[in-house]
């Protein structure tokens, strides 16, 4: 029979390892998302004028993108839960 404290120590070690591997990756993704938002903002300055978009139309387009992202997020996670993540 195992000592209850041993599982706790093992869990702490595993979680530390997971944290050290995942947090830098998440930070990188956050930085890339930030750069993407900044680039879209700068592109909108001239793109809206060239294409004849009003700020409302540009906002609607950005909103539709995020609406699609939101709508497919839940089903994709449910499928991922059933099928599992495979590499």
From TrEMBL:
Membrane-spanning segments: 22-45, 51-72
Tagged with keyword ATP-binding: no
Membrane-topology descriptor: Multi-pass membrane protein
Location(s) in or outside the cell: Membrane
A GO term for molecular function: transmembrane transporter activity
Keywords recorded for this protein, A-Z: Cell membrane, Membrane, Plasmid, Transmembrane, Transmembrane helix, Transport
GO cellular-component term (any): membrane
InterPro entries in UniProt: MFS, MFS_dom, MFS_trans_sf
Name of the protein: Nitrate/nitrite transporter
Organism: Shigella dysenteriae
């Amino acid at each position: 029979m195992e000592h209850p404290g041993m599982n706790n120590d093992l869990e702490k070690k595993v979680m530390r390892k997971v944290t050290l591997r995942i947090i830098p990756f998440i930070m990188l993704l956050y930085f890339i998302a930030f750069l993407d938002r900044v680039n879209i903002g700068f592109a909108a300055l001239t793109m809206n004028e060239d294409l004849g978009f009003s700020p409302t139309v540009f906002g609607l387009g950005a909103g539709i993108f995020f609406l699609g992202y939101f709508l497919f997020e839940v089903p994709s996670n449910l499928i991922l839960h059933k099928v599992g993540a495979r590499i």
